[in-house]
Amino acid sequence: MKDFPITIGFDDARFDLKSHSKTTDLIGIVCQGVRMVSMVKKEITIDGSDATEVLIELAKRNEKHIQFILTDTITFGGFNIIDLDEIYRRINKPIVAITERKVDLKAVKKAIVKNFPNRYKGKLQNIVNAGNLYETFVETAGGISKIYFHSKGIQFSEVESLLKKVCVDSKMPEPVRLAHIIGYAL
Q1: Which of 1, 37, 94, 123 could form a disulfide with 153 if both were Cys (CB 3.0 to 4.6 A apart)?
Q2: What pLDDT is attached to residue 23?
Q3: Does domain 6-185 have CATH number 3.30.2170.10?
């Protein structure tokens, strides 16, 4: 793996479920190592099912350059759940979905079935497609932190190596951290 891998990190913009807005932005930040190179964004539907397609579209804008796709979890805009299998199959780039804490899968499934009685099957299938949730540790300027991740197209040891290169001040990879900061500002 190169010293300064080119990654694209995704997170959603801030949104309020009580507002009348039905959309929020999905933001992608391209970094070489930890240096920001460019940004892409496009609206997704809150609690919808378009995040996978939008993420693929945004990643393909930089497909020739990016080596890895990183996301802040597998959910954007509420319960707009991405399909890691579909993204990996169509872009053919390793993808890592990172989360700061272990997920209570039973509670998530219950909430999805309750809130989406006519659309829960596809959302639950995307969770299944994410595969196992792995645990690892990241050393940053602030110390050692535990994180969890799903991945496609990349070995566990390669994920650890990648995280060492793109996590500096935070346990979240720099492109994901920047997408989060920009999304919060929007």
Answers
A1: 94
A2: 95
A3: yes
